[in-house]
Amino acid sequence: MAQQRRMGGQPLFILSEDSKRTQGRDAQSSNIMAGKAVSESVRTTLGPRGMDKMLVDSSGNVVITNDGATILNEMDIEHPAAQMIVEVAESQEDEVGDGTTTAAVLAGNLLAEAEDLIEQDVHATTIVEGYHEAARIALEAIDEQVLEADVDDDVLIQVATSSMTGKGTGGLTPAALAETVVETVRHVETDDGVERDNISVHTQVGASSSATELIPGIVLDEEPAHDDMPTSVEEADIAILDVELGVRTGEVDAEYSIDSIDQLNAAIDAEENELREYAEEIVDSGVDVLFTTDDVDDRVASLLASEGILTFDDISNKKARKVATATGASRVGALEDLSSDDFGYADTVRTDSYGDDDLAFVEGGAAAEAVTVFVRGGTDHVVDELERTIGDALDVVSTALDSGEVVPGAGATEIAIADHVRSAAAGIEGRKQLAVTAFADALDIIPRTLAGNTGQDPIDSLVDLRAAHEAEGRAGLITDGETVTIGDPIEFGVVDPADVKREAVESATEAATMIVRIDDVIAAE
Ligand code: ADP
Ligand code: MG
Questions:
Q1: pLDDT at 258 over 70
Q2: How much is the pLDDT for 1?
């Protein structure tokens, strides 16, 4: 529908005929509906009893997951307002690594509450102001919920366990994995905080998930350049070369014409000599393990093998960087420059094969405390979900350790925030008060959904939780094995990093207010 304005009786077209324009309430309600729909789609996955989703893409690839960010990413979402909810989950994932479902569900419910207010003729600007005010009060309430106790290993294990409860752990108990997770994070803890980037997760199908272990180093999908090379080298001096170790074809653009056997033999000899020289230079440098980003000729590899030098060729730039960071080796661009000054060091470099896959382990690197969680599981689906679960747990433990702040989980913090915001609303003048109260009501979606997903009546549970919060000051809906009880989450060890809650409040508010503020959608064909 083309838009027209009349000027002196003549219609004035400002948009192309193919543009589609929706304005006012229509625009608002269609955006809100789309945002709500997306958020609704992840609701059933929230909490320890949340269900998984199976996502099948157009080429038939299957992902089975419980992770909010993954679900929203895998869904092929087109609507621009719906896309904003996906971004909430994405920014939550980027900033703190967990709480993606919470953030998306909260954003959806903030929209639902806003829709009611719009119907009562509360202006969008008032809603936006009220929501921002409420978010500020909510952040204060989160500060109040932060536990006094030190965030020690016991608390970190609880944080990890809480984030993994109900996730795909390949049949393992979250508690069993939590210890590995905390040990891993402790490895990369420095005076400046947790170096999360030094933690990798490497998945390998073919064993039970209980074989999942911490590798004090890095793991690469690489096999030795030659079968006769050693499979393990201790106290290894390590070099990284960005040089091709083969006959340099193409370097001299000449054509030989060979017209006798002698000449052919001479040419072959020259080639062999060149290759032998490469091998000799490497051997003379005293290196034990060599990584190259380029090709190594089979003949060179064979010579290196006979000298006991473990070599990996054709490794990617990224892997070369990883080896450099872990071992302290500097990369060398010309063979003649290779010297022990450039060497890195690792306690052990070893290779192992797992079915059809060959892996290299570089352990005890001298430079950085790089560590890898080596995730095992029976099938691709199991290891993939385990990788996401462990990734979230590594994130929350890093976040909790960095800030030293954790809050009660199981809906208790949300109940407390809602309560605080609701009381604060009473002191706010005008219609903005309605928006602040609506924000508090929106927060109830988290405990309500946790209850609903455990098969409890959401409304009854909410009422009971509020009463318990009123009486005890801290109350969550705790899932413990088969039972669901209202109690103090701290006593059950259900805790989340404070930053996960803060980020969820902020990112959900941001997306919801952005969507509410839109009253004109102009879409090009
Ligand atoms: P998100 O993507 O938001 O992290 P999850 O499905 O991981 O969603 O659920 C997180 C919620 O589950 C948090 O509110 C957390 O406190 C809660 N939770 C974790 N463990 C328990 C438990 N044992 N009982 C009740 N709630 C729990
Ligand atoms: Mg989670």
A1: no
A2: 44
Buried b / exposed e along 271-308 (16+ C-beta atoms within 10 A): beebbeebbeebeebebbbbbbbeebbebbbbbbbeee
Which of 86, 91, 165, 485 is the pocket-test mutation for ligand 1 (most atoms within 8 Å of CB)? 165
For residue 291 the two structure tokens come to 């990584």
Residue nearest to atom 26 of ligand 1 (CA): 410
Token code pair at residue 131: 């929501």
Write down the residue that tokens 């969550």 correspond to: 476
Using a cut of 0.85, tell me whether the model's pTM lies above it.
no
Is residue 379 included in any domain, yes or no? no
Among 91, 121, 125, 124, CA closest to 107: 91
Q: CA triplet 508, 85, 497: central angle to 5 degrees?
A: 45
142 is a domain residue:
yes
- Catalytic residue (one of 100, 351, 399, 413): 100
Q: 26 C-alpha vs ligand 1 centroid, how far in Å? A: 36
Question: The CATH number of the domain where 325 resides is what?
Answer: 3.50.7.10
Q: What is the pLDDT of residues 138-190, one digit of tens each?
A: 999 999 999 988 889 999 999 999 999 877 777 777 888 899 999 999 988 88
Residue 182: φ, ψ to 5°: -65, -40
Q: Which domain holds residue 471?
A: 4-147+408-523
* Element (DSSP H or E) covering residue 465: helix 458-472
- Reply yes or no on whether 348 is catalytic: no
Residue 101 designated active-site: yes
In this structure, the residue with its CA closest to atom 10 of ligand 1 is 47
Tally of residues, the chain: 525
In a domain, 212, yes or no: no
pLDDT tens by residue, 191-225: 888 888 889 999 888 878 788 888 989 999 999 99
Q: For residue 141, what are its two tokens?
A: 């309430």
- The finding on whether 71 has its CB within 6 A of some atom of ligand 1 is no
Pairing of strands 232-241, 289-292: parallel
